[in-house]
Amino acid sequence: MAHVVSTPTLPFRSGSGSFEVHQIPAAQDNLIWLLVCTRTGAAAVVDGPDAAGVLQYVEEHGIKLTHVLNTHTHGDHIGVNRELAQRGLLSGLEVIGPAKVRDQVPGITQPVDDGDTIEVGACRARVMRTEGHIEGHICFVFD
């Protein structure tokens, strides 16, 4: 069956222009978000069910993956971590995810919680805990 998103949005810049946002179709009904710092080239994949599409996309576009940002622990969000680990690629990345459920985020290197800040290259985000969908759920607020 075809992916429900037949044409992903072309990459676009954030309001400040500090990063590009890329969409990568995954599974049948997911989009994996890829943020690329326009100053440093650092790139973060945000959640995702698997890594195959991400790895193909970054190779085709000359992007170097440096970070994984996990918002919560559902399988379609941490599957990318599991597959990167299986391929021996997770250990070289900065993996940022919810401190409250850190033991459920494969490869986590920086557990974060409400009020913390993170950096992807020269891009800085504030972390907000936004439980309700699932325990420990967080959001990353850039720009």
Q: What is the count of DSSP helices, taking H or I runs of 4+ residues?
A: 2
Helix-strand category: alpha/beta
Question: Termini separation (Å)?
Answer: 37 Å
The oligomerization state is single chain
Strands, total number: 10
Low-confidence parts, pLDDT < 50 over ≥5 residues?
none
State the helicity in percent bands: 10-25%
Report the C-alpha radius of gyration, rounded: 14 Å
Run of helices and strands: EEEEHEHEEEEE
- Sheet with most strands: strand arrangement: 1-2-3-4-5-6-7
Residue share in β-strands: 35-45%
Attribute tags:
single chain; 143 residues; alpha/beta; seven-stranded mixed β-sheet; three-stranded antiparallel β-sheet; 2 helices; 10 strands; 15% helix; 37% strand
Summarize the model shown.
With 143 residues, the protein is α/β, with parallel strands linked by helices. The protein has helices at residues 52-61, 75-86; strands at 12-13, 19-26, 30-37, 42-46, 64-69, 94-98, 110-112, 117-120, 123-129, 138-142. It is built from two helices and ten strands, in the order E-E-E-E-H-E-H-E-E-E-E-E.
